[in-house]
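#onboarding

Welcome to the new folks! Below is a worked example of what a typical request in this channel looks like: someone posts a single protein sequence, and someone else replies with the predicted structure as tokens. Don't worry about understanding the tokens yet, we'll cover that in week two.

Example request:
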Amino acid sequence: MKAPEGKYAWTATVGEKGQIVIPKQAREVFGIKPGDTLILLGDIERGIAIPPKGAIATLMKTIMDEEDNPT
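Example response:
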């Protein structure tokens, strides 16, 4: 089955210390380099997500804007 353009799926193995290795192709596609910081988001029902780089800045801007403009 061919994946839709821009959609990917990879597997990763969790080591004894709880570490995972991000597959090379995934690192290349998303421009992940050694020393980069990634954010992990978790939801008990939906699982773990690793948003793309730059999402931290977008998330923080959203949070700060909400604090400035409470609903």
